[in-house]
Amino acid sequence: MNLKGLVAGVCLLSLSTNGIFAQIKESEKVKYNFNYGWKLNVGEAEEAKQLNFDDNKWTNVNLPYAWNQAEAFKVDISHLSTGIAWYRKTFQLPKEAADKKVFIEFEGVRQMGEVYVNGTLVGLHENGAMAFGLDVTSYLKPYPQENVIAVKTDNDWRYHEKATGSTFQWNDKNFNANYGGIPKNVFLHIKSKVYQTLPLYSTLKTTGTYVYASDFDIANKKAVVNVSSQVKNETPSAVNAQLKVSVVDMDGKEVASFLGDSFSIGANEMKDLKASKALNNLNFWSWGYGYLYTVTSELLIDNKPVDAVAVRTGFRKTKFEKGMVYLNDRVLMMHGYAQRTSNEWPSVGMSVPAWLSDYSNSLMVKSNGNLVRWMHITPWKQDVESCDRVGLIQAMPAGDSEKDVTGRRWEQRTELMRDAIIYNRNNPSILFYESGNESISEEHMQEMKAIRDQYDPFGGRAIGSREMLDSKVAEYGGEMLYINKSAKHPFWATEYSRDEGLRKYWDEFTPPYHKEGTGGTTHENVNGTKVVDASAYNHNQDAHAIENAVRWYDYWEARPGTGDRVSSGGVNIIFSDSNTHYRGQENYRRSGEVDPMRIPKDGFYTHQVIWDGWVDTDKPAAHIIGHWNYEKGVTKDITVISTADAVELFVNGKSLGKGKQDKKFVFTFKNVQYQSGAIKAVGYNQSGKEVCVDEIKTAGKPFALKLNAIQRPGGMLANANDLAIVEVEVVDNKGNRCPTAMNMINFDVQGQGTFIGGIAQGPDNYIGSKNLPVECGVNRIFVKASDLAGIIKVKATSESLKTAELSIKTNKTDLQKLSLAMPADKLPSYVEKGPTPSTPSFKKTRNSVKISEAKTDANPADAAKSFDDNELSQWTNDDGSPKIEYVLEREATINQVVLKLAGWRSKKYPIRIFVDGKKVFEGVTPTSLGYVTLDVTPVKGRNVQIELMGTSKNSKDINLVEITGKVDDAGLKQSNSKTSQLPIVEVEFYEPIR
Predict the structure, then answer these.
(1) CB count in 10 Å sphere of residue 407
(2) Side-chain-facing half-sphere of 101: CA atoms under 13 Å
(3) Residue 166: Cβ-neighbour burial (10 angstroms; 0-12, 13-18, 19+)
(4) In angstroms, rounded to a whole number, what is the distance separating the alpha carbons of residues 541 and 548?
(5) 591-642: per-residue pLDDT in tens?
(6) Which residues form the Glycosyl hydrolases family 2 sugar binding domain (predicted)?
(7) Is the pTM of this model over 0.85?
């Protein structure tokens, strides 16, 4: 079911014989696309608010359009242009709008927006993050008179709230790319004087329609669908009102129709009307299964329809307990990306057509990510709805920076969270509300939870914050870089693997021969301080992909099924390279698994392999990192990422044996000599059966160019805003991509479109240039449609290579200033992963053995803190003997001891472990991102003693230095004791499954 079909049931009203109500006509609409026909002026123009101002010399633009978007990826985030810009639009209301209510909805203005209608200021919005709406009824002139709307915007980084003088915490140069003006969609709503309100609280003080499901029976595909809609009566008389609800599936079939109770609504009164019904044969929304329904709530007054609201939503069941996330009764380990909310692209910033949001977000799912944690700022509604369609779970923040705040700045955060929840609570893909990018006080967490409980009590969403490891209020948490485990609320890492790697750099053996760590220590932070040595973060594709796999292993090792305390996963920062703070010699963040034009890096395919499953691996897979087009004489290590139990490597059919597995998923083959031909990796299970294979073949010499268009499903729109991606490859005479090609490509665009450009390493990152090189044999550019339907012709040339040409057809669409064509019309859902499987998502690997008490002569009052399921508490021996004994609840054959020792990433501890007096382990603990698993000699007993044998040693095995130069102490506490310390944050004991 497409959104245009949805809106067909949401219709404009005409007057009835009593002067108030009439039947809704199918041909009339209450919601218009208001994006077309704007004019833009960058700079001060205070007179532009006046009705009769002459804007003929202003630039014609269609929204969404940020006035500085052409700078995206060209300049450092802190250098994006700021200042005043004005937008104006002249339009007529439809004839049928006489005596109706008219509202304008902005999905967002950055940072501030003053809205004038026919010369009068009607509203001000300043937070730069959230949607807002205005009642413009009394300021508009009826048909056929013309109306003028003017919007003054100011995207100053230092913008201060007019009423209080306060800045906004999230207006931050580190992460909040500053695309100014009106970078998001605008809509016009025309409604009866008795109507269902809009979910735009901060300016209209209304909450709209709330749709949710309850009483789930997943196995039998049943649930109760509930609708609660706020209705406002702006007539002088009371009315009798009720809701009539229709539920339509994705095939356009009505699966239910039902009525709510009738209520009297007094003059100028608002009241929530409700309706609900139990439905059968439901398709539940799931990961990679964006199944959506259209729920239309029709408002009946005296049994006559006067207003209708169509909500595109999905139904799913959630639960958050035992340290795990449940979706539709199945445990799902979180694995995905911490993505900058701007989600931007070269030369166009964030203001892309809705289909491009789907394209980008669906790539996260296709890499086997299931969660996107938007960072710091509440996401654009277009991305929220896109995640619904592609089946990508979201963690939705409100707005913050890196710490808790007080006073007006905290009030701003709560107001933004309130508005974001009301606006987005019907979107099934949101499973988490994030109250802070760093821990907040329990009092503040309780305030945020109260907002959730008031406005979204039935949405099945956990509210929490980064960290909050010992919170009694937060419903989820998790640190930024480390592995956390819990037996209660789920903990997942909010960002890990912060390393960077440019797509251009294959390895040290391929031009331009990028060695590990080179580049990235010469620029300054946005506050002017020098960036600390970032060599540990600067990778080529080989090393970056390997690092991603190595980092994930620590989370996978603590996955559901491994005990009573588990990790619920984590999100890698970031998915696509971003025009935000960076550690490399380029002026943008290169941590992505795809580059800014969404061309996959090797990390993309690495995640496809290691994340293939809800918890356990669904299907074994393998990926050979790199290419097979080296110069003669090159000998290098080959790495294969695989979920198989063993991997064998073949070069031109000759076996090089099985790979060494230092960490699960990572198989290394040392000193492989390059030979033109084919390299193949074969994965085997524990029985020696072949379960997966990957092969790379040598490409021939560069021969020709090849073009391919990636465009909107159903074809490109001739609306002067739609974009198509044109991919160019350098190929050999058989059509195979040449992976080491770096040829310069010259583009020519003719017909009903214009060249926008792409990105590559070089001057100004080649932003806007019609001549840019391929990297690793491929690159991409944007072309933009004109407002006339026709053909766009793209020609690519390069010296000594065969020319390539491509034609793209653009299709006529509704370009009226009040358009019936919505930005997301006819965009399909991604459903390739299918419904939630009914089988268990994991197989239990071991049994945990609970601890009844701990005995120690050193600091005994804190002994229980070493097994209290609180990672912010610990036991250490202080001045006493570094020895502690645990009494188990029952006798058990202990074969594994899991420890979280303070300083886990920088300290190695020499320890001995005894079970009932028998030594089962003696050695040095490794460094980790949290927990270490020690395999011990299996011994049956009930008393386990752990003792330190000497002084802990410092290690630099894990180098994680923040941009500021700060190194986290990882739980280490200062001590004046001269005794060697054994600081145990958590300890766990395990026995094999019987």
Answers:
(1) 9
(2) 22
(3) middle
(4) 11
(5) 999 999 999 999 999 999 999 999 999 899 999 999 999 999 999 999 999 9
(6) 52-188
(7) yes
